[in-house]
């Protein structure tokens, strides 16, 4: 029996390892990634159309008005969204489409009845999450404090997800998600 195409949403606080986990999964056969859109500026090394579709605010809001997103939200003062066409393209290839999105976006997908499985990636502790945020070196103190406050609210919502994976060991976390996805697809 051929595995079915499946949308899998990976969510959790900033710096919990969502992107790293997704990159590891995407290196395996059967996975594809829908590139999401944002109004934030690219970080060093990020490429438009690969890491995100980087849009100005007007273009983003025009796409929202046209109904081009499965979900969209404002996070940390920037707009983020998942283009329907990006997800449809991956699913049409019969793959597991991975979406790495924030907790608000995952809630919007559930509310809109999108057929998906929802995985929450949690840190082993609040102290470890703060260490990871600071270790990235991409944000100033005010931004780190804002992200930590957001993380506390997001952690309180992990019960809304199909499963919670604690990212205390990257290889184990990736393996757990891969096994879940295999079961879900069959």
Task: Please give a handful of descriptors for the protein shown.
single chain, 186 residues, alpha/beta, Rossmann fold, five-stranded parallel β-sheet, four-stranded mixed β-sheet, 9 strands, 42% helix, 22% strand
Describe the structure.
- The protein is an alpha/beta fold.
- The chain has a single domain (6-185), classed as P-loop containing nucleotide triphosphate hydrolases (Rossmann fold).
- Helix content is 42%, strand content 22%.
- The protein has seven helices and nine strands; from the N terminus they run E-H-E-E-E-H-E-E-H-E-H-E-H-H-E-H.
- The strands form two sheets. It has a five-stranded parallel β-sheet with strand order 2-7-1-8-9, with helices on both faces. Strands 4-3-6-5 form a four-stranded mixed β-sheet.
- The termini are close together.
- The mean pLDDT is 93.
Structure in a nutshell:
By secondary structure, the protein is α/β, with parallel strands linked by helices. The protein has helices at residues 18-26, 57-65, 84-92, 103-111, 126-136, 141-155, 170-185, and strands spanning 6-11, 31-33, 37-38, 53-54, 69-75, 78-83, 96-100, 117-122, 163-166. α1 (18-26) crosses α7 and α5 runs antiparallel to α6 (141-155).
Strand fraction: 15-25%
- Uncertain segments of ≥5 residues (pLDDT<50)? none
Instruction: State the share of residues found in helices, binned by percent.
Output: 40-55%
Structural class: alpha/beta
CATH class: Alpha Beta
Chain-averaged pLDDT: 93
Silhouette: globular
Going by CATH, the architecture would be 3-Layer(aba) Sandwich
Number of strands: 9
Strand order across the biggest sheet? 2-7-1-8-9
The major β-sheet equals: 5 strands, parallel
Q: How many alpha or pi helices? A: 7
CATH topology grouping: Rossmann fold
Q: What's the order of the H and E elements?
A: EHEEEHEEHEHEHHEH
Name the CATH superfamily assignment. P-loop containing nucleotide triphosphate hydrolases
